[in-house]
């Protein structure tokens, strides 16, 4: 999250969950720490190239495994589609919202398509 979002979260923790409020200097340090290590600008999306759908892939696809398993693939759109079906059916991935699913498929086919990886393999 961004520094502002972390800041709001801290407010919420204090108000809603009765977290002990921090001294301003401590809060500044904590915020700097959170924003630089767990902030938006500093993270490099683990190497995912920019483009529509990047966010969806980033947040949906590393709940169970690392993004490396995604990035090492080079699949046709169709095979990506099949692998999403497989992930939902066999691996208990929560079904994706249709709009997100389309974005994800477009993204994967564009950036991790058949021609973009030295390793061309189909999955089950
Ligand atoms: C609910 C858990 C879960 C989520 C979420 C998930 N996966 Fe997977 N995925 C798995 C499991 C389990 C495997 C199997 C690993 C193995 O075979 O060792 C896997 C394997 C894979 C593989 C490799 C298949 C192979 O044959 O080696 C790819 C590619 C993949 N996932 C892509 C994705 C993408 C893209 C997303 C996001 C849209 C995603 N996964 C989200 C559970 C998940």
Count of the domains: 2
Do you know the CATH topology of the largest domain? Answer: Cytochrome Bc1 Complex, Chain D, domain 2
User: Helices and strands, in N-to-C order?
Assistant: HHHHHH
Low-confidence stretches: none
Shape: elongated
Radius of gyration: 19 Å
Q: State the secondary-structure class.
A: mainly alpha
CATH architecture of the largest domain: Orthogonal Bundle
Mean pLDDT: 87
Can you walk me through this structure?
This protein is mainly alpha-helical. The chain contains six helices and no strands. The chain has helices at 3-17, 24-38, 54-60, 68-71, 77-91, 98-111. The site of heme C (HEC) has 17 residues, from helix 4, helix 5 and helix 6.
Explain the layout of strands and helices.
Layout: H1 3-17, H2 24-38, H3 54-60, H4 68-71, H5 77-91, H6 98-111
Briefly characterize the structure.
The protein has helices spanning 3-17, 24-38, 54-60, 68-71, 77-91, 98-111. The chain is mainly alpha-helical and 124 residues long. It folds into 2 domains: 3-43, no CATH class; 46-116, Cytochrome c-like domain (Cytochrome Bc1 Complex, Chain D, domain 2), CATH 1.10.760.
For this entry, give a set of tags.
0% strand, 124 residues, Cytochrome Bc1 Complex, Chain D, domain 2, mainly alpha, elongated, 2 domains, binds heme C
């Amino acid at each position: 999250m961004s520094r502002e979002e972390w800041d709001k979260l801290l407010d919420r923790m204090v108000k809603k969950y009765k977290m002990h409020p921090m001294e301003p200097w401590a809060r500044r340090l904590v915020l700097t720490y959170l924003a630089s290590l767990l902030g938006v600008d500093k993270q490099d999306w683990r190497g995912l190239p920019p483009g529509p759908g990047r966010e969806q892939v980033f947040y949906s696809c590393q709940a169970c495994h690392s993004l490396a398993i995604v990035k090492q693939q080079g699949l046709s759109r169709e095979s990506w589609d099949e692998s999403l079906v497989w992930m939902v059916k066999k691996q208990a991935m929560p079904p994706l919202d249709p709009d997100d699913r389309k974005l994800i498929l477009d993204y994967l086919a564009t950036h991790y398509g058949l021609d973009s990886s030295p390793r061309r393999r189909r999955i089950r």
